[in-house]
Amino acid sequence: MSVQKDRVMAVSEWEERWQTGRIGFHNFHVHKMLQKCIDRVLCGRSGVRFFFPLCGKAVDMKWLADMGHSVVGVEISEMAIKQFFEDHNMTYTEETVPAIPEGKLFKSSDGKISLYQCSLYDFSSSVAGQFGGIWDRGSLVAINPCDRERYASILLSLMDKDCRYLLDTLLYNPELFGGPPFAVSDEDIRTLFGSACEVQLLVSQDAFEEKHKTWGLDYLTEKVHLLTLKSN
Ligand code: SAH
Hints:
- By secondary structure, the protein is of the alpha/beta class.
- It has 8 helices and 9 strands.
- 28% of the residues lie in helices and 27% in strands.
- β3 and β4 form a beta hairpin.
- The longest helix has 11 residues.
- It starts with 10 loop residues before the first helix and ends with a strand.
């Protein structure tokens, strides 16, 4: 962690990645971990309001909406949001957001998917309420390590009492690769969320692929934790 602590990626660098198509983080299929763990998130509930922090154009949003849930995402890149709707041949509306002067809301015509184009740090429960489910993939691992506490307090404030927050993280030797994605340890998760949440490890799996060799890594473990508010 020490070597990654001070690394900062500017918002403009993310936008540049979208503009130049360097979006290796994007999955064309529904994420395996979400599929594997969805029953633990839903717990039999239907019509859950899901939050996707740093949503990119994750196809998981469409998957959940097709199952009858609703989705709110936050993404800084307008290009990513437009590509999401275009990739799925969905029509959408575009409106301003009084609470976020710099931001915009893109909403699918059926109203099930609302994507806010703004920084997560300008988003709060006063914009779109609280949520019953959160899918955090490529999000806690993508933000700058120095912003983690701010990030955690926003995510906690977006959790409804019955919220089930599924958190996907990557563990590797941070001495070998600068990130993003940044390495997140179990201890980091407990430090950030442990006082407010019960933290349960659902999956820990070797996720080392060819591309990780080019990052200089020797191992990579993917972990999925389920966070629920302690007061429940
Ligand atoms: N969760 C998505 C995208 C992961 S990449 C997926 O799994 O595919 C991280 C995304 O966060 C990028 O699309 C980037 O444009 C966006 N992003 C980075 N910083 C942000 C911020 N402060 N607020 C909102 N979005 C941000």
